[in-house]
UniProtKB/TrEMBL annotation:
<keyword id="KW-0813">Transport</keyword>
<dbReference type="InterPro" id="IPR026015">
    <property type="entry name" value="ATP_synth_OSCP/delta_N_sf"/>
</dbReference>
<keyword id="KW-0472">Membrane</keyword>
<dbReference type="Pfam" id="PF00213">
    <property type="entry name" value="OSCP"/>
</dbReference>
<dbReference type="InterPro" id="IPR020781">
    <property type="entry name" value="ATPase_OSCP/d_CS"/>
</dbReference>
<keyword id="KW-0406">Ion transport</keyword>
<dbReference type="GO" id="GO:0045259">
    <property type="term" value="C:proton-transporting ATP synthase complex"/>
</dbReference>
<keyword id="KW-0066">ATP synthesis</keyword>
<comment type="function">
    <text>This protein is part of the stalk that links CF(0) to CF(1). It either transmits conformational changes from CF(0) to CF(1) or is implicated in proton conduction.</text>
</comment>
<dbReference type="GO" id="GO:0005886">
    <property type="term" value="C:plasma membrane"/>
</dbReference>
<keyword id="KW-0139">CF(1)</keyword>
<dbReference type="InterPro" id="IPR000711">
    <property type="entry name" value="ATPase_OSCP/dsu"/>
</dbReference>
<comment type="similarity">
    <text>Belongs to the ATPase delta chain family.</text>
</comment>
<keyword id="KW-0375">Hydrogen ion transport</keyword>
<keyword id="KW-1003">Cell membrane</keyword>
<dbReference type="GO" id="GO:0046933">
    <property type="term" value="F:proton-transporting ATP synthase activity, rotational mechanism"/>
</dbReference>
<comment type="function">
    <text>F(1)F(0) ATP synthase produces ATP from ADP in the presence of a proton or sodium gradient. F-type ATPases consist of two structural domains, F(1) containing the extramembraneous catalytic core and F(0) containing the membrane proton channel, linked together by a central stalk and a peripheral stalk. During catalysis, ATP synthesis in the catalytic domain of F(1) is coupled via a rotary mechanism of the central stalk subunits to proton translocation.</text>
</comment>
Length: 178
């Protein structure tokens, strides 16, 4: 994972610089979302790394699948990535780009994984508390994982807060073993 991030970072920074210069942050977000969704598809991924295809054919295959959803700059990115055998990095590039964009906009995406679905009031209260703690705008998305038993795990970039009952039981078991 760290290796993919290391390989993807220069591409994400270059795309971000281009998007910032052209005031096209949202357009690039859309293009990268489309590209990463298609690149992550298992069937298309096989085509994108097939040894009998040239890099131009691989790039064209991805561009054809995306249809008219891409602008010329995004098509150029696909060509460069194909030429360097880096098409598989598209999901990672998109993720890094979104982190750079959020940092510029002083915002953070927070994923809350809880044992039960969060109510709107709970999500708003959590967002307000995190906004005060992190001192930036917070966009909360929630997931349900019933194996947590109770509580929640909050992920905001590198920050992870494990307040789940499963996590607390694991810490207790570890403390009892030592």
């Amino acid at each position: 994972m760290a290796e993919l991030t290391t390989l993807a970072r220069p591409y994400a920074k270059a795309v971000f610089a281009e998007a910032s210069e052209k005031s096209a942050l949202d357009a690039w977000s859309d293009d990268l979302a489309v590209l990463s969704a298609f690149a992550a598809d298992a069937d298309l991924a096989k085509v994108l790394v097939h040894p009998s295809l040239t890099s131009e054919q691989q790039a064209q295959a991805l561009i054809d699948v995306c249809g008219d959803k891409l602008n010329e700059a995004a098509k150029n990115l696909v060509a460069v990535l194909a030429e360097n055998k880096r098409l598989a990095l598209l999901p990672e590039i998109a993720e890094l780009y979104e982190e750079l964009k959020a940092k510029l906009q002083n915002a953070v995406d927070v994923v809350v994984t809880s044992a039960y679905e969060l109510s709107d009031a709970q999500a708003e209260k959590l967002a307000a508390a995190l906004k005060a703690k992190l001192q930036c705008d917070v966009r909360v998305t929630s997931e349900v994982d019933e194996s947590l038993i109770g509580g929640a795990i909050i992920r905001a970039g590198d920050l992870v807060i494990d307040g789940s009952l499963t996590g607390k039981l694991s810490k207790l078991a570890e403390a009892m073993k030592s």
